[in-house]
Specification:
Number of domains: 1
Radius of gyration: 17 Å
Number of helices: 7
Helix content: over 70%
Strand content: under 5%
Oligomer: single chain
Distance between the termini: 34 Å
């Protein structure tokens, strides 16, 4: 157990990536779920930072925050799912909250850092992506 937890073994790396993936996805899903549950309320006050209209902006945000987070948690199409999540955080931090103090951007920047790290590292061995690749290798 000590070797697994306190070494740089493939198992500890995979467990770390699993924890990071599922944790970030679960927290991000709560943002998307609240927008789904209160869609009409959000629609009246949602910003249009990229010029496609508030309704489309809200729908794109829900797609990223909720549906892409589900894919991220499962480790399915991970890098593809991370692209909308990273774009959403970039827009939120640098456009929608661009003029806000750093303290208001902090959470978005933390998510963005996690999403970029996962994009670069991949989902790890404990993911649907890894299982699909493993099956395709042995065909």
């Amino acid at each position: 157990m000590k070797k697994i937890l306190f070494s740089n073994s493939p198992i500890s790396r995979s467990l770390s990536l699993l924890l990071l993936r599922v944790g970030a996805a679960a927290f991000m899903m709560t943002h998307g779920w609240s927008k789904i549950m209160n869609f009409s309320e959000y629609l009246t006050k949602f910003a249009d930072p990229i010029g496609v209209g508030p309704a489309v902006s809200l729908q794109l945000t829900i797609f990223a925050e909720f549906f892409c987070s589900i894919l991220l948690a499962l480790g399915f199409m991970t890098r593809w799912a991370l692209i909308p999540l990273m774009i959403t955080m970039i827009v939120a931090v640098f456009i929608a909250h661009g003029g806000d103090p750093f303290g208001h951007k902090e959470v978005g920047l933390l998510y963005l850092t996690i999403f970029i790290s996962l994009f670069l590292s991949g989902p790890g061995n404990i993911s649907m992506d890894a299982q699909i690749l493993k099956k395709n290798r042995y065909r």
